[in-house]
Amino acid sequence: MSTGVAPSAHGIIGNNWFDRDLNKSIYSCFDPAAKTPEGATSGKELGPAQLLAPTLAELLERATKGASKTIGVGWKDRAAILMLGRGDLALWVDGEGALTSSTHYVAKLPEWVQALNAPIPPAARYSGRTWDRCGEDAAYAGLVDERSFEPVHGGTRTLPRPVGKPAPAKPDISAVCNSPFALDVVQDCVEAAITAEHLGADATPDFLAIGFSAVDFIGHAFDPGSVEVRDAILRMDQVLARLLEFLDQRIGLEHCCIVLSSDHGITPAPEVLRAQGNAQAARGQFTEALARFANHTLVTAFGEPKPPHKRFVIDGTAGGIILDVGAIAASGRTRREASTLVVDAAKSLPPLALVIAKEDLPAALANAGSPAAKDLLSAVSHATHPTRAGDVLHLFQQGLNDSTSLATHGSPWPRDRAVPLFARGALFEKGLLCPTKVSPASAAALLAASCGLSLPTGTAPLPPLR
What are the DSSP calls for 304-319, one per residue? Predict the structure, then answer.
């Protein structure tokens, strides 16, 4: 949203991926130079080092020669860090419910952040509350609250439910995280940041990125068709109203440009999909099984890896199947031979909708036989970074869930890609619509147009509005 480009350019291909140079899986916000700032208890090795494209905040600071204030606030560290990039201050909620940052941004937490964290951290204040429906009965029409496949949270599958235990019990930050109170926590922190940092106080444009992650957490935990998700969306609407009212009173909405979107949609739980007629929907460790299959295929063709190598496939959990080129070379074979063998062997596996060698993706996209195939391959291409993605790319059939969550996302299938994009500002006439599909990456163009910024070549264009 804030770079205007796809993962193929900005490099963030997932929450984690395998780094060949470090020979290990790394986190999307892994920043080895960053340390925990003074006044905080966490933040070590978190920063924007893995982000390969400039964000709107960075471009704004360059244009104003550092006069703009640029801040990111989110429950998740990756939401605050990656939307902001190399800006002034990223803040997120840590495991104790406090707001924190890293030394990439500040050597010491600002005084106002330390004051906000004491004596009770922002998220801890909501532990022990009761989550009940916030809307009228009609708002939940057609939804079933008691579903046997939902896990029990707070001792029940239905609302109302306790969110942790009241004081003097230790605050349950995980329970707050999986409740709509997480929305309020972020909004509390946003209001504090706007006030303390004097955002919007002068004619120089400032940048504020906000990561409201509660709907994501709740969608994973309860499934998108749950009463809990419906209630979270209703509460999201209330929190957005609170945000707009605060901005209007503090700055004036006529002085604000606001873009609202999401980084992904979500696929329903397999239990829901089977009830809807998708007989193949299931849970399982599909990615792990595919990695074992690929390694077995290469052992059968090449023999056991030569010491000190132990496997031909060294990772298969994110970004595709990563081949050990050293092990393959020691067997007198090439990476290309290995990837071709794996693709040919895996093509007949029922769980797979697509398996392809990374270097064959451009040709497959160019020769796609139908609009649907072209759309799917295009989405895969946008998610594939040339050096961070795996050697063999794969896509499981719709409805296969190999996560530990009730429902999940992360594929190029339509439900995972369906997100809104709203814009509000002086340049946008009320009621204008984009008649075609538009990417959340166009958020950068919408914001850039509002403050007269030019974006780098290759960024998503300004959507056609009419």
Answer: SPPTT---SEEE-SSS
Q: Is residue 60 part of a domain?
A: yes
- Alpha-carbon span 110 to 98, nearest angstrom: 13
Q: pLDDT of 72-107, one tens digit each?
A: 999 999 999 999 999 999 999 999 999 999 999 999
- Residue among 83, 28, 17 at smallest CA distance from 441: 83
- Cα-flanking dihedrals φ and ψ of residue 261, to 5°? -160, -165
Total count of domains within the chain: 2
Query: Which residue do the tokens 């007949």 mark?
Result: 348
| 57, 90, 187 from 246: Cα distances, Å | 22, 21, 10
**DSSP strand pairing (282-283 vs 400-401):** parallel
pLDDT confidence band for 318 (50 / 70 / 90):
low
- β-pairing verdict for 89-93 and 70-74: parallel
The pTM of this model reads 0.97
* Together in a domain, 347 and 226: no
Contact 396, 284 (CB under 8 A): no
Total Cβ atoms within 10 A of residue 54: 21
**193: containing domain:** 31-256
Asked whether residue 207 falls in the same domain as residue 81, the answer is yes
Residue 83 C-beta-side C-alpha neighbours within 13 Å: 29
For residue 411, give the nearest of 347, 353, 346, 465 by alpha carbon: 353
Q: Which residues contact 237 (CB under 8 A, 6 or more apart)?
A: none
Same domain, 82 and 214: yes
215 close to 238: Cβ distance less than 8 angstroms: no
Q: What is the pLDDT of residue 330?
A: 98
The pair phi, psi for residue 131, each rounded to 5°, is -95, 115
My answer on whether 325 and 181 are in the same domain is: no
Rounded CA-CA distance 447/246 in Å is 20
